[in-house]
Amino acid sequence: ITATDGADLRGARCYSLQGGAISAQTGLLDVPHCVRCSSGITQYLALLQVFLLALFCAQSLGRVFNLTLSVKEGLPAKTIVGDLGAVLSAPSTGFFISESRDSYVFRDLEIDADTGIISTVAGLDRESRDRYEFVAATLTGEMIRVRIEVEDVNDHSPVFPRKEVELGISELSPPGSRFPLEGAADRDEGEFSTRGYRIRESEMEELFHLDFRIGSEKQHSLDLVLNSRVDRETQDYYTLTIEAFDGGIPARTGTVQVDIRILDENDNPPVFNQSEYHSSVREDAPIGSIVSQVLASDRDLGDNSRITYEINRRQSDHNHVFSINETTGFIYLNKPLDFEIQPFHELIVRARDDGAQPEYSSTFVGVKVLNINDNSPTISVLFLSETGEAVVSEAAAVGEYVARISVSDPDLEEHGITVSLEGGDGKFTLKQTDDFLFALCVNSELDREGKDLYELKVQASDSGSPPLSSETLLLLKVSDANDCQPVFEQEVYTVNIAEDAPEGSSLIRTRARDADEGVNSNIRYSILKSHQDGLVAIDLTSGLVTTAAGLDRETQMEVWFLVLAEDGGEPCLSSTATVTVLVEDVNDNEPVFQQQLYNVSIPEHMDAGSCFLQVVATDADSPEFGALLYSLLSDGFDSQESHPLFQIDPHTGELCVSQDIDRDDGTSVHDILIKAEDPGGLSAQTYVHIEIQDLNDNPPVFSPEEYTVSVSSHAPPGTEVVNVIATDQDSGRFGQVTYEIHPGDMSSLFTLDRHTGGLYLYFKTVKLYFISFVSQDGDGLSSARPAEVTINVVQSAEAPAVFLRSRYTFTVPEDAPLGTSVGTVEASSLNATEPVSYRISSGNLHSWFSVHPKSGVINTIKPLDHESQPYALLFLQSYTDTSPIYSTTQVNITITDVNDNAPVFPKRRDTITVSRSTRPGTVLFIAHAHDHDSGANGIVQYHLKSSRSEVFAIDSNLGMVRLNKSLHVLQHQRYNLEILAKDEGKPSLSSTLTLSVNIDHTAADDSLAFETLVYQVEIGEGYRKDSRVIQVRAHRTRGSHTSNSGLTYCLEAETGFPLPPFRIHPKSGWLYLSRNLDFETESRYRFQVLSTSGEASLANVTATAMVTVLVLDVNDNPPVFSSDVYYFTVSEGSSPQGLVGTVRAKDKDSGKNSQLSYILLSDGKYFRINAKTGEIINWVALDREQHSQHSLTVMVTDQGHPRLNATANVHVLVTDINDNTPQFNHLPSNKELNVPICAGVPVGFLVTNMFAKDLDAGENGTVTHSLVTGECETCSLLRRNMSEILNVLVLFQLDQRRMVSSTLRLTVKMETSEPRSSSVRERNHFTL
């Protein structure tokens, strides 16, 4: 029983008992078994009671001592360990020990109970017991707790649990695999325990190494690690020694032998001892007979090497004729054999081991069945055709094998077999290739077409007794070889077809036959390549030839091609047939003139019937449709069936004159439309432009022939007197008129402009002149009648102020400020002291100018505009205050242009779309800006402001924008170009057009495009309907050599522009006029042309281009007066009245064709006309009493070629002024009248009639009569009773004595605000 306490138990006591049970808390003993009492036991119990008593007493007194001692193991016996009394405060005389005498304490130690000396009984062994603990008690009750530690010494070597260890390692273990081993135990501790391990055999280090970890003294980790793979079949066993060593010096070691057995894995398949097995067995062998034995071995062990045999039924012996013992490999007969059915059996035997994942191997077993002579020979035929059928090609060469014939017989090895062949007409033979094999060979050439089936009989006989034989019948079919070429039914085919047959029309069916069969007789038809093969097509199987394109007899009257028939053999055989297609003509071609326009000139007055031109048209059709008839179309000839001037031979096309042509009576140009028509009604037209050459058959003619003009006697030299006009109906130099004064006339007083007919004063004139003018043309033909000019010199007592010059010419810029002095005119008067005044009489239509009345300085009073009126023609008058007479001068003012107008584009922005495949150099756009200025100021130059100038370029003069670089390499979607239009003025003015160019990237490389994107053409408005204008052409962007025959063209109007008067030929792209043009109605057309292709291969099948047509003006509009008749009123007077009125005309044409000049054709004596303004001027004083009205004819002419003119009548009514006194026209010059009367006449007697007349009109011409004075008291004045007649009557009775004579004075008065009077004295005498 041991009672212990400690700090860990906090003073609690714990009891333990060796050999029994005791309660650890109460100390109660538990004796589980019955113990037999003996003296020893009794004594023990007594001592135990004493010890326990002392223990309890010590505990109660609390005197407990601890004694700890140590001693090395292995010391000799009697070695003193220690003294129990060493811890006591006083020596003790005796000690009680808690251990019994047979306990381990007294077994190894000796304790002196009296002295307390502890010594060893024998050498101690720490490994047996490393400590001793017991309690000693003194007699005085003191307790000593004793602990003796046994110190270790290196007296033990490491010891493995076993001397030998067997270890199994799988041969499939990978390098690095670990195999745990038990470590070596060393009873020593600390550094004397096991410290490491090593393998003694150095050669084993290639395969193994040790990996160990030392934990506590009793827990070691030791692994044998595999360095490389092992192979049991190479070496299945290894032995190595592992040595363990401790830390002593010298170290003590222990070893263990490790026997390593390499464990087998199933890594080797079974291996047969033969690659093939061959055996033979009689066909009558009983079932179960051993046929053969196969043997296989496996290098593996155990189940991995245990082999099981089986027959591979999937590859052999499907009928289970044989069986095999799966353990021994014996092959047994499982079913009866039949040599005739199968003389040889091939078995695939498979060996399989019993591994978890079994391995397999196979071997071939050939079993030959031995025949017994009980059967007739068996004939087996194997045909060598691809299908294995009884077929031989007729192309088989002599000696070629047809079939392999094997003859089998049980007696084959013992008895010979004879094989024979019957039939075949000698075409086949047998050739023996082996003892039992024969080859059926071709013996001579075969011809399937001659015979396609052979019946052959093969007979085999053995040499048995009796001999047995067998035979087999072979039906051998001769297969076709492609040895026959197709044969056409005809070698040459000829067919006719109309040229207008639509595409796909059937021409002919060609047939070819092939004597071969099968694919060799399948015929395919085709047309051999030629330049005509595109016109026709053929059906591959039927041989039907159809048209593949439109035919044109005129291009090709005959289509010749070869039809090829090919069979389906390899190689194919073929033959050809010639097909000739005769294209029959249809009337599908219009006649074509050699020229679309003939220009011809003929002299006038050609003899009727004279032919001057032959037009030639051709018709590509055959003569049936190509015979042409010519005719003149009644185009504007009053619907007559024949032309009034020309005729044409209907067969030859000769154009002849039908009657005399006078160029001067009609038009000088004739445009004739000639039609050529074929018998089918197709026709073509051509224009013949005939110019009638002028003959000098017309002399110049003056119109008018008489001129009456007036000129002031004071007119200075250089004054224009008259302008005579002669015209010549001829043209050219024949119509150029020059003027001369008739010799002998007053030529020295005048000068004549020979070209204009203007007559000018050379000296002052004082009298009336009559001058005769003659004119002649450029060929010297003179006018038949001269022009007679009467020049009235108007005399005046007072001389007018006369201009120093008859004409003045000035220039002023249009931007001149108001008040600018243009120039100065000057006139002089005979009276130097009398001032001269000036005024503008005509030409100042816009009131732009004024003249200073005293200085004669002409100034501007309104802004000028060169663009609306580039010049002004003013007539100025000079006069004095005392004289009503004036003189006239002509002032020409040129208004020069300044650069005040910038170029103007029709619109400021425009957009076009361009395909990326557009070729460089293509015109994309035409920019046009108009500048209203003239000269250099109106010349426009074009430039590109954009930085994209490397991609685009512009013509500086024409404004054409061209593509300068390919768009393929550029990725821009849009370009914005700024086009600058700049004039050449100084300083220059400009404007800008923004052009957006969109790039179409969808378009592919091979597409359709026009040659240019913009076409611009100018055409005169005089072109007739159906005239050609321009040809547009489209083409493919790739492969320019490709025919463009499949293109069609059409027009499309553009929004914002009028409908174009054009039509387009859908095939050629020529534009024609569809109606006559009129510049005055529309001068510009813009529209689109579209080209469409039928080729589906093109990326875009439609192309678009822009066409701009500028209509040029021709002089086709004569001037038109605003009125056919003009009425003006002017007062008579002693001086000219100046401006009478203005006639105005307009011309719808433009440019020079609309510039007008006015000419006064009559009454040049009193009136003149401003040639530029149409102002009519009275320049000679008018007298109503002489001419109460004047009728003038005014002609206006344009400046076109030929000149066109118009005339208008002008009636000038002269109004009256009271410038005449009443006159007694019946009186003598002394204005006295003597009237005798008789005396005595009654009252109321009529003495006389008096009448007075006044030349004025109206009230100015109404007169009254009165008696002013008189000596006759008997007479009275009676007022007029009718008209201007005055009756004088006697009022009183006359007295003869008182009145001898009486004088009457009669006064006549006019009823006017300014009466004028005239008196007459009447003296009458009478006789008393």
TrEMBL record:
Gene Ontology terms describing biological process: cell migration; homophilic cell adhesion via plasma membrane adhesion molecules; mitral valve morphogenesis
Domain of life: Eukaryota
CDD domains for the chain: Cadherin_repeat
Main location group: membrane
Occurrences of domain Cadherin (ranges): 95-160, 161-272, 273-379, 384-488, 489-593, 594-702, 703-803, 804-905, 906-1010, 1011-1121, 1122-1224
Name of one Pfam family that matches: Cadherin
Membrane topology: Single-pass type I membrane protein
UniProt keyword terms in alphabetical order: Calcium, Cell adhesion, Cell membrane, Glycoprotein, Membrane, Repeat, Signal, Transmembrane, Transmembrane helix
Molecular function GO labels: beta-catenin binding; cadherin binding; calcium ion binding
Stored Gene3D superfamilies: Cadherins
SMART domains documented for this protein: CA
Subcellular location: Cell membrane
Record-linked InterPro entries: Cadherin, Cadherin-like_dom, Cadherin-like_sf, Cadherin_CS
GO cellular component: catenin complex
Signal peptide from the UniProt entry: none
Coiled coil: none
Subunit structure of this chain's protein: Heterophilic interaction with FAT4; this interaction affects their respective protein levels.
Name of the protein: Protocadherin-16
Organism encoding this protein: Poecilia reticulata (Guppy)
